[in-house]
Write a structure and sequence with these properties.
5 helices, 6 strands, 3-stranded antiparallel sheet, 158 residues
Length: 158
């Protein structure tokens, strides 16, 4: 018998004497199986798939937008329940403004106005900081340092 194989079997102390050797099989779940479980959960909630949804935008209070391109949407209008899943990206509202103007409600338009005002304030603040930084510049040299060091060395010699 191979001594390496024997040492490996002896090192396996998890099993008691007289029990058969069992190899633990890891079960890998596929995405399709997870998708079937999700579909089953959505059916329990009586959600119906909504085809032909090209894009979903969720407006956050911070001024960002959670954007889903080609999402899978399930809805139950009677219970006001929606399930949206897919690949979502968090984007700034300014990136999506031309495409989402028709989707904005009164609250979102007010948020957009606040966002525009805050951008104007920050732009004005940055301009003021730029002016202050110009004032803090180092002044031009008027005299030569070499001449001053020669004069200082002469005074030390005296």
């Amino acid at each position: 018998m191979n001594p390496e194989k024997l040492a490996k079997l002896q090192a396996n102390a998890n099993r008691s004497k007289g029990t058969p050797r069992r190899v633990v099989k890891k079960v890998h779940r596929s995405v399709a199986q997870d998708d079937r479980k999700l579909q089953g959960a959505l059916e329990k909630l009586a959600l119906v798939p909504q085809p032909y949804v090209d894009e979903v935008n969720m407006f956050m209070e911070e001024g960002t937008v959670l954007n889903f391109r080609q999402p899978k949407v399930h809805a139950s209008v009677a219970s006001n329940t929606y399930a949206i899943y897919g690949r979502g990206q968090e984007k700034d509202m300014t990136e999506l403004i031309p495409n989402i103007l028709s989707q904005l409600g009164p609250d979102s338009i007010a948020n957009l106005r606040k966002l525009a005002e805050s951008y104007q304030k920050t732009a004005a603040g940055q301009a003021a900081l730029a002016n202050q930084e110009d004032d803090d510049e180092v002044p031009d040299l008027v005299e030569s340092f070499e001449e001053a060091s020669i004069e200082a060395s002469k005074e030390e010699e005296k």
